[in-house]
Amino acid sequence: MIEGRDTFKDITELVLACLDGTISSDEFAILQARIKTSKEVRRHYLECLALCISLNRYEEESINLPVIQSLPKEEYYNDILQALAENEKVAVAVDVEKTKKEPEPYFFELEDEVVVQRRISRLSVFAFMVSAAAMLCMAVLVWFNPVKPVVAVLTESRNAVWAGSDALIEGDDIRQGPLALSSGYAGITLTNGVEIVMHGPVTIDIESETQVFLSRGSIFSKVSKGAGEFLVRTAGATVVDYGTEFAVEVDSSGSTAAHVFVGEVELRAGADIVKHGPVKRLLAKQAAAVDVAGTITDVKFAPEQYVTSVPSKYDMAVLDSDPAAYWRFANFGDFPVNEINLTTYDASYVGNIDFTDSSDLNRDIHSQALKLDGQGGHVSVKIGWQNANRGWSYSMWIRPELLADMQDRSNHYYILVGEGRYGYLNVSDDGTLEHCYRYNDGTADFRQVGKENIVSGRWYHIAMTVDNDGTKRLYINGTEASEPIEKENTSLGTGSSCKEIIIGTVFEESPAFKKGPMDKPFKGDISQVALYGRTLSQKEIKKLYLSSRN
User: Fold this and answer.
1) Domain 313-547 adopts which CATH fold?
2) In the chain, % of residues over pLDDT 90
3) Helical H runs in 402-501?
Protein backbone atom coordinates (compact mmCIF):
# COMPACT_ATOMS: atom_id res chain seq x y z
CA MET A 1 0.00 0.00 0.00
CA ILE A 2 1.04 3.57 -0.60
CA GLU A 3 1.11 5.62 2.49
CA GLY A 4 -0.02 9.26 2.17
CA ARG A 5 -0.29 11.82 -0.57
CA ASP A 6 3.44 12.64 -0.34
CA THR A 7 4.16 9.28 -1.91
CA PHE A 8 1.85 10.09 -4.86
CA LYS A 9 3.59 13.44 -5.18
CA ASP A 10 6.99 11.76 -5.35
CA ILE A 11 5.77 9.26 -7.95
CA THR A 12 4.27 12.10 -10.00
CA GLU A 13 7.60 13.95 -9.97
CA LEU A 14 9.41 10.84 -11.15
CA VAL A 15 6.87 10.17 -13.91
CA LEU A 16 7.09 13.74 -15.20
CA ALA A 17 10.88 13.61 -15.10
CA CYS A 18 10.75 10.35 -17.04
CA LEU A 19 8.43 11.82 -19.68
CA ASP A 20 10.44 14.99 -20.23
CA GLY A 21 13.76 13.09 -20.29
CA THR A 22 15.40 14.64 -17.21
CA ILE A 23 15.22 11.60 -14.95
CA SER A 24 18.51 10.21 -13.68
CA SER A 25 19.42 6.53 -13.81
CA ASP A 26 19.01 6.18 -10.03
CA GLU A 27 15.54 7.82 -10.07
CA PHE A 28 14.49 5.66 -12.98
CA ALA A 29 15.47 2.52 -11.05
CA ILE A 30 13.39 3.69 -8.06
CA LEU A 31 10.32 4.37 -10.22
CA GLN A 32 10.64 1.02 -11.95
CA ALA A 33 10.89 -0.85 -8.67
CA ARG A 34 7.82 0.93 -7.18
CA ILE A 35 5.68 0.21 -10.25
CA LYS A 36 6.61 -3.47 -10.19
CA THR A 37 5.87 -3.90 -6.47
CA SER A 38 2.72 -1.75 -5.98
CA LYS A 39 -0.67 -1.94 -7.75
CA GLU A 40 -1.57 1.54 -6.53
CA VAL A 41 1.61 3.01 -7.98
CA ARG A 42 0.92 1.32 -11.31
CA ARG A 43 -2.60 2.84 -11.35
CA HIS A 44 -1.27 6.29 -10.52
CA TYR A 45 1.36 5.87 -13.26
CA LEU A 46 -1.38 5.11 -15.83
CA GLU A 47 -3.39 8.12 -14.70
CA CYS A 48 -0.41 10.36 -15.29
CA LEU A 49 0.07 8.86 -18.76
CA ALA A 50 -3.60 9.43 -19.59
CA LEU A 51 -3.35 13.03 -18.49
CA CYS A 52 -0.30 13.62 -20.73
CA ILE A 53 -2.06 11.98 -23.69
CA SER A 54 -5.06 14.27 -23.22
CA LEU A 55 -2.89 17.36 -23.00
CA ASN A 56 -1.06 16.43 -26.21
CA ARG A 57 -4.37 15.77 -28.03
CA TYR A 58 -5.74 19.23 -27.32
CA GLU A 59 -2.50 21.06 -27.80
CA GLU A 60 -3.88 22.88 -30.83
CA GLU A 61 -6.71 24.28 -28.66
CA SER A 62 -4.10 26.50 -26.96
CA ILE A 63 -4.59 25.12 -23.47
CA ASN A 64 -2.92 27.40 -20.99
CA LEU A 65 -0.93 25.15 -18.67
CA PRO A 66 1.47 26.32 -16.03
CA VAL A 67 5.15 25.86 -16.71
CA ILE A 68 5.59 22.89 -14.42
CA GLN A 69 9.36 22.96 -14.46
CA SER A 70 9.34 26.45 -12.93
CA LEU A 71 6.92 25.64 -10.05
CA PRO A 72 7.89 24.46 -6.60
CA LYS A 73 7.67 20.70 -6.14
CA GLU A 74 4.64 20.85 -3.75
CA GLU A 75 2.46 22.52 -6.43
CA TYR A 76 3.06 19.87 -9.15
CA TYR A 77 0.14 17.58 -8.33
CA ASN A 78 -2.50 20.28 -7.64
CA ASP A 79 -1.60 22.21 -10.77
CA ILE A 80 -1.95 19.09 -12.91
CA LEU A 81 -5.38 18.24 -11.50
CA GLN A 82 -6.56 21.85 -11.85
CA ALA A 83 -5.43 21.95 -15.48
CA LEU A 84 -7.24 18.66 -16.15
CA ALA A 85 -10.48 19.95 -14.60
CA GLU A 86 -10.44 23.16 -16.60
CA ASN A 87 -9.79 21.21 -19.76
CA GLU A 88 -12.72 18.83 -19.16
CA LYS A 89 -15.17 21.77 -19.07
CA VAL A 90 -14.49 22.77 -22.68
CA ALA A 91 -13.24 19.53 -24.18
CA VAL A 92 -15.04 18.03 -27.19
CA ALA A 93 -16.45 14.58 -26.69
CA VAL A 94 -14.38 11.91 -28.37
CA ASP A 95 -15.58 8.41 -29.11
CA VAL A 96 -12.99 5.88 -28.07
CA GLU A 97 -13.36 2.35 -29.27
CA LYS A 98 -13.04 -0.08 -26.43
CA THR A 99 -10.73 -3.00 -26.82
CA LYS A 100 -11.91 -6.43 -25.89
CA LYS A 101 -9.20 -6.87 -23.32
CA GLU A 102 -7.00 -4.32 -21.66
CA PRO A 103 -3.30 -5.28 -21.83
CA GLU A 104 -1.54 -5.60 -18.55
CA PRO A 105 0.35 -2.30 -18.00
CA TYR A 106 3.85 -3.49 -17.53
CA PHE A 107 5.80 -0.90 -19.48
CA PHE A 108 9.05 -1.24 -17.60
CA GLU A 109 9.63 -4.86 -18.60
CA LEU A 110 10.92 -3.52 -21.96
CA GLU A 111 13.92 -1.88 -20.42
CA ASP A 112 16.27 -2.27 -23.37
CA GLU A 113 13.83 -0.44 -25.63
CA VAL A 114 13.49 2.59 -23.37
CA VAL A 115 15.79 5.45 -24.34
CA VAL A 116 16.71 7.38 -21.24
CA GLN A 117 18.39 10.75 -21.43
CA ARG A 118 20.51 11.57 -18.48
CA ARG A 119 20.14 14.92 -16.83
CA ILE A 120 23.22 17.09 -16.77
CA SER A 121 24.99 16.26 -13.56
CA ARG A 122 27.30 18.41 -11.49
CA LEU A 123 30.17 16.14 -12.56
CA SER A 124 29.43 16.83 -16.22
CA VAL A 125 29.33 20.55 -15.59
CA PHE A 126 32.62 20.30 -13.73
CA ALA A 127 34.19 18.27 -16.55
CA PHE A 128 33.03 20.85 -19.08
CA MET A 129 34.53 23.65 -17.02
CA VAL A 130 37.84 21.77 -16.71
CA SER A 131 37.91 21.14 -20.49
CA ALA A 132 37.18 24.77 -21.20
CA ALA A 133 39.97 25.82 -18.84
CA ALA A 134 42.37 23.39 -20.54
CA MET A 135 41.48 24.77 -23.96
CA LEU A 136 42.02 28.27 -22.67
CA CYS A 137 45.42 27.27 -21.29
CA MET A 138 46.35 25.72 -24.64
CA ALA A 139 45.33 28.90 -26.43
CA VAL A 140 47.49 30.94 -24.05
CA LEU A 141 50.44 28.59 -24.56
CA VAL A 142 50.09 28.80 -28.34
CA TRP A 143 49.89 32.59 -28.05
CA PHE A 144 53.03 32.88 -25.98
CA ASN A 145 54.77 29.80 -27.47
CA PRO A 146 53.75 29.62 -31.14
CA VAL A 147 54.56 26.57 -33.28
CA LYS A 148 58.12 27.01 -34.45
CA PRO A 149 58.81 27.15 -38.19
CA VAL A 150 60.27 24.31 -40.24
CA VAL A 151 63.93 25.14 -40.89
CA ALA A 152 65.36 21.85 -42.21
CA VAL A 153 64.62 18.34 -43.44
CA LEU A 154 66.32 15.04 -42.53
CA THR A 155 67.78 13.94 -45.86
CA GLU A 156 69.81 10.89 -44.79
CA SER A 157 70.41 8.76 -41.71
CA ARG A 158 72.27 5.56 -40.91
CA ASN A 159 71.86 3.73 -37.56
CA ALA A 160 70.68 7.04 -36.07
CA VAL A 161 69.50 7.10 -32.44
CA TRP A 162 67.87 10.38 -31.41
CA ALA A 163 67.78 11.62 -27.82
CA GLY A 164 64.63 12.70 -26.01
CA SER A 165 61.32 12.69 -27.88
CA ASP A 166 62.95 13.03 -31.30
CA ALA A 167 62.28 10.02 -33.52
CA LEU A 168 63.15 11.23 -36.99
CA ILE A 169 63.14 9.26 -40.21
CA GLU A 170 64.39 10.31 -43.62
CA GLY A 171 62.15 12.96 -45.15
CA ASP A 172 60.88 14.36 -41.84
CA ASP A 173 60.67 18.12 -41.37
CA ILE A 174 62.79 19.61 -38.57
CA ARG A 175 61.56 22.66 -36.70
CA GLN A 176 63.57 25.42 -35.15
CA GLY A 177 65.05 24.34 -31.82
CA PRO A 178 67.36 21.74 -30.23
CA LEU A 179 68.30 18.47 -31.92
CA ALA A 180 70.36 15.71 -30.27
CA LEU A 181 71.85 12.67 -32.04
CA SER A 182 72.98 10.08 -29.48
CA SER A 183 74.73 7.79 -31.99
CA GLY A 184 74.85 6.95 -35.66
CA TYR A 185 74.94 9.28 -38.64
CA ALA A 186 72.52 11.89 -39.97
CA GLY A 187 72.43 14.50 -42.70
CA ILE A 188 70.07 17.47 -42.64
CA THR A 189 69.49 20.18 -45.21
CA LEU A 190 68.43 23.63 -44.07
CA THR A 191 65.79 25.49 -46.04
CA ASN A 192 68.47 27.78 -47.49
CA GLY A 193 70.33 24.76 -48.94
CA VAL A 194 73.10 24.39 -46.34
CA GLU A 195 73.94 20.71 -45.73
CA ILE A 196 75.00 19.52 -42.27
CA VAL A 197 76.42 16.06 -41.49
CA MET A 198 76.43 14.78 -37.91
CA HIS A 199 78.09 11.77 -36.29
CA GLY A 200 76.70 11.15 -32.81
CA PRO A 201 76.95 12.04 -30.06
CA VAL A 202 76.24 15.61 -31.09
CA THR A 203 73.81 18.28 -29.87
CA ILE A 204 72.85 21.36 -31.84
CA ASP A 205 70.20 24.07 -31.63
CA ILE A 206 68.94 25.18 -35.04
CA GLU A 207 68.38 28.84 -34.30
CA SER A 208 67.36 29.70 -37.88
CA GLU A 209 67.95 28.56 -41.44
CA THR A 210 71.22 30.53 -41.40
CA GLN A 211 72.51 29.83 -37.89
CA VAL A 212 73.07 26.85 -35.58
CA PHE A 213 74.44 26.56 -32.05
CA LEU A 214 76.74 23.57 -31.41
CA SER A 215 76.76 22.41 -27.78
CA ARG A 216 78.53 19.06 -28.07
CA GLY A 217 80.40 17.00 -30.64
CA SER A 218 81.23 17.99 -34.20
CA ILE A 219 79.38 18.82 -37.41
CA PHE A 220 80.44 19.18 -41.02
CA SER A 221 78.77 21.95 -43.06
CA LYS A 222 78.62 22.37 -46.81
CA VAL A 223 77.52 25.84 -47.87
CA SER A 224 76.78 26.16 -51.57
CA LYS A 225 77.22 29.37 -53.50
CA GLY A 226 74.20 31.66 -53.20
CA ALA A 227 73.13 30.28 -49.83
CA GLY A 228 74.09 33.53 -48.11
CA GLU A 229 75.83 33.92 -44.78
CA PHE A 230 75.88 30.90 -42.49
CA LEU A 231 77.10 30.82 -38.87
CA VAL A 232 77.96 28.09 -36.41
CA ARG A 233 77.99 29.39 -32.82
CA THR A 234 79.35 27.65 -29.73
CA ALA A 235 79.63 28.71 -26.10
CA GLY A 236 83.02 30.27 -26.81
CA ALA A 237 83.25 31.02 -30.53
CA THR A 238 81.50 31.87 -33.77
CA VAL A 239 82.42 30.53 -37.20
CA VAL A 240 81.25 32.59 -40.17
CA ASP A 241 81.44 30.92 -43.57
CA TYR A 242 82.27 32.48 -46.92
CA GLY A 243 81.07 29.75 -49.30
CA THR A 244 82.79 26.82 -47.66
CA GLU A 245 82.95 23.23 -46.58
CA PHE A 246 84.15 23.13 -42.99
CA ALA A 247 83.96 21.21 -39.72
CA VAL A 248 83.39 22.63 -36.24
CA GLU A 249 84.04 20.68 -33.04
CA VAL A 250 83.45 21.38 -29.34
CA ASP A 251 85.70 19.19 -27.20
CA SER A 252 85.34 18.11 -23.57
CA SER A 253 87.26 21.16 -22.31
CA GLY A 254 84.89 23.58 -24.03
CA SER A 255 87.35 24.63 -26.74
CA THR A 256 86.08 25.18 -30.28
CA ALA A 257 88.04 24.02 -33.35
CA ALA A 258 87.35 24.90 -36.99
CA HIS A 259 88.82 22.94 -39.94
CA VAL A 260 88.34 24.30 -43.46
CA PHE A 261 88.13 21.80 -46.32
CA VAL A 262 87.12 24.17 -49.12
CA GLY A 263 86.81 27.97 -49.23
CA GLU A 264 87.25 30.37 -46.33
CA VAL A 265 85.82 31.02 -42.86
CA GLU A 266 86.22 33.61 -40.14
CA LEU A 267 86.79 32.29 -36.62
CA ARG A 268 85.75 34.71 -33.87
CA ALA A 269 86.33 34.35 -30.14
CA GLY A 270 83.01 34.66 -28.32
CA ALA A 271 79.44 33.54 -29.01
CA ASP A 272 78.03 37.05 -29.45
CA ILE A 273 77.59 37.84 -33.13
CA VAL A 274 78.08 41.59 -32.66
CA LYS A 275 80.47 41.83 -29.72
CA HIS A 276 83.33 39.38 -29.96
CA GLY A 277 87.02 38.94 -29.30
CA PRO A 278 89.93 38.20 -31.64
CA VAL A 279 89.27 37.13 -35.24
CA LYS A 280 91.22 34.80 -37.55
CA ARG A 281 90.64 34.04 -41.23
CA LEU A 282 91.11 30.40 -42.27
CA LEU A 283 91.58 29.12 -45.83
CA ALA A 284 91.33 25.59 -47.25
CA LYS A 285 93.43 23.01 -45.36
CA GLN A 286 93.84 25.35 -42.40
CA ALA A 287 92.53 24.93 -38.86
CA ALA A 288 92.47 26.86 -35.59
CA ALA A 289 90.96 26.57 -32.12
CA VAL A 290 89.52 28.97 -29.54
CA ASP A 291 90.02 27.96 -25.90
CA VAL A 292 87.75 28.88 -22.99
CA ALA A 293 89.83 32.00 -22.31
CA GLY A 294 89.11 33.29 -25.84
CA THR A 295 92.63 32.72 -27.19
CA ILE A 296 92.93 31.62 -30.85
CA THR A 297 95.75 29.25 -31.82
CA ASP A 298 96.59 27.40 -35.04
CA VAL A 299 96.15 23.61 -34.99
CA LYS A 300 96.97 20.87 -37.50
CA PHE A 301 94.40 20.43 -40.21
CA ALA A 302 92.97 16.92 -39.62
CA PRO A 303 90.25 16.07 -42.18
CA GLU A 304 90.30 12.38 -41.24
CA GLN A 305 88.72 13.21 -37.87
CA TYR A 306 85.41 14.29 -39.38
CA VAL A 307 82.65 12.53 -41.26
CA THR A 308 81.81 14.55 -44.35
CA SER A 309 78.89 12.50 -45.68
CA VAL A 310 76.47 9.94 -44.27
CA PRO A 311 77.96 6.45 -44.80
CA SER A 312 76.26 4.14 -47.26
CA LYS A 313 75.16 0.58 -46.50
CA TYR A 314 78.39 -0.62 -48.05
CA ASP A 315 80.40 1.80 -45.91
CA MET A 316 78.83 0.38 -42.77
CA ALA A 317 79.63 -3.16 -43.89
CA VAL A 318 83.28 -2.18 -44.45
CA LEU A 319 83.47 -0.60 -40.99
CA ASP A 320 82.06 -3.79 -39.48
CA SER A 321 84.89 -5.76 -41.14
CA ASP A 322 87.49 -3.68 -39.23
CA PRO A 323 89.79 -2.35 -41.99
CA ALA A 324 93.15 -0.76 -41.24
CA ALA A 325 92.37 2.11 -43.63
CA TYR A 326 89.45 3.10 -45.81
CA TRP A 327 89.10 5.83 -48.43
CA ARG A 328 85.82 7.00 -49.92
CA PHE A 329 87.66 9.65 -51.96
CA ALA A 330 85.45 12.65 -51.28
CA ASN A 331 86.38 15.66 -53.38
CA PHE A 332 88.30 18.01 -51.05
CA GLY A 333 90.99 19.27 -53.33
CA ASP A 334 94.40 17.65 -53.76
CA PHE A 335 94.34 15.19 -50.85
CA PRO A 336 92.36 11.99 -50.23
CA VAL A 337 90.31 11.95 -47.05
CA ASN A 338 90.20 8.92 -44.81
CA GLU A 339 86.79 9.90 -43.45
CA ILE A 340 85.70 7.22 -41.01
CA ASN A 341 88.08 7.85 -38.10
CA LEU A 342 90.46 4.98 -38.84
CA THR A 343 94.24 4.76 -38.79
CA THR A 344 95.55 7.49 -41.06
CA TYR A 345 98.21 6.78 -43.65
CA ASP A 346 100.03 9.46 -45.56
CA ALA A 347 98.18 9.55 -48.87
CA SER A 348 98.30 12.02 -51.73
CA TYR A 349 96.95 12.56 -55.23
CA VAL A 350 99.50 12.60 -58.02
CA GLY A 351 98.85 13.81 -61.56
CA ASN A 352 95.48 14.36 -63.19
CA ILE A 353 92.73 13.36 -60.72
CA ASP A 354 89.04 14.12 -61.12
CA PHE A 355 85.89 12.99 -59.33
CA THR A 356 82.48 11.79 -60.34
CA ASP A 357 79.17 11.85 -58.51
CA SER A 358 77.04 11.16 -61.56
CA SER A 359 73.53 9.73 -61.33
CA ASP A 360 74.65 6.21 -62.17
CA LEU A 361 76.48 5.91 -58.84
CA ASN A 362 74.43 3.87 -56.37
CA ARG A 363 74.20 5.84 -53.10
CA ASP A 364 73.91 2.55 -51.20
CA ILE A 365 77.46 1.86 -52.37
CA HIS A 366 79.21 5.19 -52.90
CA SER A 367 78.45 8.82 -53.55
CA GLN A 368 81.74 9.79 -55.22
CA ALA A 369 84.59 8.08 -57.04
CA LEU A 370 88.03 8.83 -58.43
CA LYS A 371 87.96 9.41 -62.17
CA LEU A 372 91.30 8.56 -63.78
CA ASP A 373 92.02 9.52 -67.39
CA GLY A 374 94.73 6.93 -68.10
CA GLN A 375 97.47 9.57 -68.27
CA GLY A 376 99.25 8.68 -65.05
CA GLY A 377 97.07 10.16 -62.35
CA HIS A 378 97.05 8.02 -59.21
CA VAL A 379 96.87 7.90 -55.41
CA SER A 380 100.04 7.23 -53.45
CA VAL A 381 99.63 5.63 -50.01
CA LYS A 382 102.65 5.27 -47.70
CA ILE A 383 102.09 1.99 -45.83
CA GLY A 384 105.35 0.90 -44.20
CA TRP A 385 104.09 -2.54 -43.14
CA GLN A 386 106.68 -5.16 -42.26
CA ASN A 387 106.42 -8.94 -42.05
CA ALA A 388 102.81 -9.24 -40.93
CA ASN A 389 101.91 -12.77 -39.86
CA ARG A 390 98.11 -12.40 -40.23
CA GLY A 391 98.07 -12.06 -44.00
CA TRP A 392 96.62 -9.03 -45.80
CA SER A 393 93.67 -8.04 -47.99
CA TYR A 394 92.22 -5.18 -49.96
CA SER A 395 88.84 -4.48 -51.51
CA MET A 396 87.52 -1.81 -53.86
CA TRP A 397 84.99 -0.92 -56.54
CA ILE A 398 86.17 -0.36 -60.11
CA ARG A 399 84.50 0.72 -63.36
CA PRO A 400 87.07 0.41 -66.18
CA GLU A 401 86.92 2.10 -69.57
CA LEU A 402 88.38 -0.42 -72.01
CA LEU A 403 89.45 0.19 -75.62
CA ALA A 404 87.42 -2.65 -77.06
CA ASP A 405 87.68 -1.36 -80.63
CA MET A 406 91.47 -1.72 -80.75
CA GLN A 407 92.88 -4.53 -82.83
CA ASP A 408 95.76 -5.09 -80.42
CA ARG A 409 94.05 -6.20 -77.21
CA SER A 410 97.24 -6.72 -75.22
CA ASN A 411 97.07 -3.43 -73.29
CA HIS A 412 97.09 -3.86 -69.51
CA TYR A 413 95.79 -1.12 -67.22
CA TYR A 414 97.13 -1.15 -63.69
CA ILE A 415 94.47 -0.75 -61.02
CA LEU A 416 96.65 -1.25 -57.94
CA VAL A 417 100.33 -1.93 -57.40
CA GLY A 418 102.04 -2.62 -54.08
CA GLU A 419 105.79 -3.06 -53.81
CA GLY A 420 106.74 -6.56 -52.69
CA ARG A 421 103.71 -7.44 -50.67
CA TYR A 422 100.64 -6.53 -52.68
CA GLY A 423 101.78 -7.40 -56.19
CA TYR A 424 99.78 -5.70 -58.90
CA LEU A 425 96.21 -5.88 -60.16
CA ASN A 426 95.45 -5.05 -63.79
CA VAL A 427 92.78 -5.40 -66.44
CA SER A 428 93.34 -5.86 -70.16
CA ASP A 429 91.39 -4.41 -73.07
CA ASP A 430 89.51 -7.66 -73.57
CA GLY A 431 88.29 -7.55 -69.94
CA THR A 432 90.68 -10.05 -68.39
CA LEU A 433 91.28 -9.29 -64.71
CA GLU A 434 94.68 -10.42 -63.53
CA HIS A 435 96.63 -10.38 -60.28
CA CYS A 436 100.39 -10.89 -60.34
CA TYR A 437 102.68 -11.37 -57.38
CA ARG A 438 106.47 -11.03 -57.27
CA TYR A 439 108.89 -10.61 -54.39
CA ASN A 440 111.06 -7.56 -53.92
CA ASP A 441 114.00 -9.18 -55.69
CA GLY A 442 111.91 -9.84 -58.79
CA THR A 443 111.69 -13.61 -58.32
CA ALA A 444 108.77 -15.99 -57.81
CA ASP A 445 106.24 -14.63 -60.30
CA PHE A 446 102.70 -15.93 -59.64
CA ARG A 447 99.72 -14.98 -61.77
CA GLN A 448 95.98 -15.31 -61.20
CA VAL A 449 93.52 -14.77 -64.03
CA GLY A 450 89.79 -14.21 -63.60
CA LYS A 451 87.53 -16.97 -64.92
CA GLU A 452 85.18 -14.52 -66.63
CA ASN A 453 85.90 -11.26 -68.37
CA ILE A 454 84.57 -7.98 -67.03
CA VAL A 455 82.74 -5.44 -69.20
CA SER A 456 83.74 -1.86 -69.87
CA GLY A 457 81.59 0.78 -68.11
CA ARG A 458 80.18 -1.47 -65.37
CA TRP A 459 80.91 -1.41 -61.64
CA TYR A 460 82.63 -4.46 -60.11
CA HIS A 461 83.55 -5.28 -56.53
CA ILE A 462 87.12 -6.59 -56.41
CA ALA A 463 88.85 -8.23 -53.43
CA MET A 464 92.31 -9.73 -53.07
CA THR A 465 93.61 -11.79 -50.12
CA VAL A 466 96.89 -13.45 -49.14
CA ASP A 467 97.01 -15.95 -46.27
CA ASN A 468 99.96 -16.10 -43.89
CA ASP A 469 101.13 -19.24 -45.73
CA GLY A 470 101.28 -17.32 -49.01
CA THR A 471 98.01 -18.56 -50.54
CA LYS A 472 96.47 -15.86 -52.73
CA ARG A 473 92.84 -15.48 -53.80
CA LEU A 474 91.05 -13.10 -56.18
CA TYR A 475 87.32 -12.29 -55.90
CA ILE A 476 84.90 -10.54 -58.28
CA ASN A 477 81.44 -9.51 -56.98
CA GLY A 478 81.79 -11.66 -53.89
CA THR A 479 82.76 -14.86 -55.72
CA GLU A 480 86.23 -16.39 -56.01
CA ALA A 481 87.27 -15.53 -59.56
CA SER A 482 90.23 -17.88 -60.10
CA GLU A 483 92.03 -20.85 -58.68
CA PRO A 484 94.11 -19.89 -55.62
CA ILE A 485 97.88 -19.79 -56.14
CA GLU A 486 100.53 -20.65 -53.58
CA LYS A 487 104.30 -20.61 -53.36
CA GLU A 488 105.58 -23.76 -51.73
CA ASN A 489 107.34 -23.48 -48.35
CA THR A 490 107.13 -19.71 -48.35
CA SER A 491 105.24 -17.60 -45.84
CA LEU A 492 104.65 -13.89 -45.59
CA GLY A 493 107.56 -13.67 -43.22
CA THR A 494 109.91 -13.58 -46.22
CA GLY A 495 109.96 -10.56 -48.49
CA SER A 496 106.59 -9.36 -47.23
CA SER A 497 107.33 -5.73 -46.50
CA CYS A 498 105.38 -3.01 -48.28
CA LYS A 499 106.38 0.63 -48.21
CA GLU A 500 103.91 2.08 -50.70
CA ILE A 501 100.72 1.27 -52.55
CA ILE A 502 99.85 2.95 -55.84
CA ILE A 503 96.16 3.10 -56.83
CA GLY A 504 95.53 3.81 -60.48
CA THR A 505 98.86 3.61 -62.31
CA VAL A 506 102.11 1.64 -62.70
CA PHE A 507 104.80 1.41 -60.05
CA GLU A 508 108.35 1.70 -61.41
CA GLU A 509 110.60 2.13 -58.39
CA SER A 510 111.05 -1.54 -57.49
CA PRO A 511 112.62 -4.50 -59.29
CA ALA A 512 109.53 -6.45 -58.26
CA PHE A 513 107.60 -4.70 -61.00
CA LYS A 514 108.34 -5.34 -64.67
CA LYS A 515 106.71 -2.77 -66.87
CA GLY A 516 106.01 -4.01 -70.38
CA PRO A 517 105.69 -1.90 -73.55
CA MET A 518 101.88 -2.13 -73.49
CA ASP A 519 101.39 -1.44 -69.79
CA LYS A 520 99.37 1.71 -69.08
CA PRO A 521 97.82 3.59 -66.17
CA PHE A 522 94.24 2.71 -65.35
CA LYS A 523 91.44 4.57 -67.07
CA GLY A 524 88.02 4.61 -65.40
CA ASP A 525 86.58 5.02 -61.91
CA ILE A 526 87.76 3.66 -58.55
CA SER A 527 85.93 3.98 -55.23
CA GLN A 528 85.81 2.67 -51.64
CA VAL A 529 89.34 1.29 -51.28
CA ALA A 530 89.83 -0.60 -48.01
CA LEU A 531 93.10 -2.07 -46.74
CA TYR A 532 93.36 -4.87 -44.16
CA GLY A 533 96.26 -6.17 -42.08
CA ARG A 534 94.69 -9.64 -42.09
CA THR A 535 93.14 -12.14 -44.49
CA LEU A 536 89.46 -11.61 -45.14
CA SER A 537 87.42 -14.81 -45.28
CA GLN A 538 85.28 -15.73 -48.27
CA LYS A 539 82.20 -15.20 -46.10
CA GLU A 540 83.31 -11.67 -45.17
CA ILE A 541 83.94 -10.74 -48.80
CA LYS A 542 80.56 -12.10 -49.82
CA LYS A 543 78.92 -10.06 -47.06
CA LEU A 544 80.65 -6.90 -48.27
CA TYR A 545 79.35 -7.38 -51.79
CA LEU A 546 75.82 -8.33 -50.73
CA SER A 547 75.55 -5.23 -48.54
CA SER A 548 75.37 -3.24 -51.77
CA ARG A 549 72.52 -5.40 -53.08
CA ASN A 550 70.09 -5.10 -50.13
Assistant:
1) Jelly Rolls (2.60.120)
2) 29
3) none
